[in-house]
Structures are given as C-alpha cells and as structure tokens.
Amino acid sequence: MKLKELIEQLNLTVFEPGNNLDRTLSGGYASDLLSDVMGYAKHDMVWVTLQNHVNIIAVASLKDIAAIILVHGQEPARDVLDRAKEEGITLLGTESDTFRISADVYMSLNQHGTGSR
Amino acid sequence: MNFSYDIAGGDFVNAGQASSALKKILKSLNLDSSLIRRTVVSLYEAEVNVVAHAWSGNIQVNIQPDQICIVVSDKGPGINDINLAMQKGYSTASPEVREMGFGAGMGLPNIKDNSDVMELRSTPGEGTELKIVNKILS
C-alpha cells in the first residue's frame, strides 16, 4: 500500500508532505520510546506516536521511516515542522488515540496485503 | 575519509545532527542501505547517550574501503558498571530525559545490535569512550 493511499483512506492531516508520498509501506509501528523505535521499527513503516519534539524527526530520518502520525489532534511544534521540512519527512496527524489509529493502520495495510511488521 | 563532530551535553535539539551528516556522506558513497541504517542508528544512540549523560563529547569517524570506524568520547560521569549498563532496560537517565522518550535502557543494546564491533571503556568521574566498527562488504 502506498503512503498517499493510507493518508486518503484514514483521512489523516498532512502537516508536511515530505519527499515521497508514493513510497510503498512495509508496515506500522506504535511507540513513544525513541530507542524502541530505533531498535525495532523497520524502514518504510508508518510510526504512530504522541511524542512531539525535534528528536522524532531525527529518528524517522535515520531509520528511513515513511511517515510519523501524531495522535490526539496534536499540531507539530514549530521546530518539529521545520526539521521535518529540512529532512523531507512526512508528518501526519489524527484526532484518534494511539490504539485506535494503530488498529486503523493495521486494517488498511492488511486489506492491501502488507504485513504489520 | 575522516569526519569529526562535537557534542554538547544536554543539547537535545541538536542530538542526531552528526548522525544525519554521516548518513548523507555514507549515501554519497553508495554504500548498502542496511549498512548505512545500522551505522547511523549506532551513532545516534551514542550521540543521545552523550547528550543525556555527559558534559561534552566528540565523535571521530574514519571511513576506509573495508570499514567504518566511529569513536565517541566524552567528558562526564562515566559508567560505574558496564555490564549492568549493557543490560536491556537498565538506565540512569533523569525523569526529564525519560519524558522525551529516551532513557529506556535500550541505547547501548541497540548499538551492540547495530554494529559489528563495539568496545566500551569508561573511567567513572572522567568519561567514556565508545568504539563502533561496521564492516563494508564488497
């Protein structure tokens, strides 16, 4: 499934489109521990988190994460948005909480035959 | 090719800048993307360790045709028990650092998992030196 299809299907807010909305997703990961994401998330996954500070952009960039989804209707902090732009990271948002949006991402990916991991 | 970078203790805003810079260099050398990811993940965790625990630090990267060698040395409190620090889940990070999603006791284990050689030496009260080597397979 492509990132732009997921955005459409789940009606996600696009704060920063990043440099590749056409990339094919490999799965999803939900965690607020950055080292957990560094250790276990895989490239081309979408990452669901409530962390809203510049270090999430570094983590996403270094791990080649496809997109970050901020939960609970949070707007990205100004410096987060600027850093996302600089690094070409797709930054998305949802009103849902982590559990619900993770379930939605999981269902969408499974419908498209993409595994959760 | 050599590359040097200074790190300031407590500077979370710039944590990851050296890793990002190294990633760009390694990409420009057309190295395998999995090798690049493993290397920059290791360096990022090392950077965050310096920012979270030490007063100042320095990164030296040496890229040779067959390997990438990174030495991260810091001035700081050092590590009293390296075996304990290597255990997943063990951390001495402050509550503020934990709130940001760091300090889960996964940094050093992540470095070990993402490097071919990892050497950690520390003098409590003075500082810590971490050496990471990743081999470039042709």
Strand-residue proportion of chain A: 15-25%
The SS-based structural class of chain B is alpha+beta
| Order of helix and strand elements from N to C terminus of chain B | EHHEEHHHEE
Order of helices and strands of chain A: HEEHEHEHEH
* Overall mean confidence score, pLDDT of chain A: 95
Largest interface: A-B, 22 and 24 residues
CATH superfamily of chain A: HprK N-terminal domain-like
Order the strands across the largest sheet of chain B as they lie in space: 1-2-3-5-4
In the residues of chain A, how many domains can be counted? 1
Descriptive tags:
heterodimer; A: Udp-n-acetylmuramoylalanyl-d-glutamate--2,6- Diaminopimelate Ligase, Chain: A, domain 1; 18% strand; globular; B: 138 residues; alpha+beta; Heat Shock Protein 90; 5 helices; 29% strand
Descriptive report:
The complex is a heterodimer of chains A (117) and B (138). With 117 residues, chain A is an alpha/beta fold. Chain A has helices at residues 3-9, 34-40, 55-62, 78-87, 98-111, and strands at 13-16, 27-30, 45-49, 67-70, 90-93. In chain A, α2 (34-40) links the parallel β2 and β3. Chain B has one domain (2-135): Heat Shock Protein 90. Chain B starts with a strand and ends with a strand.
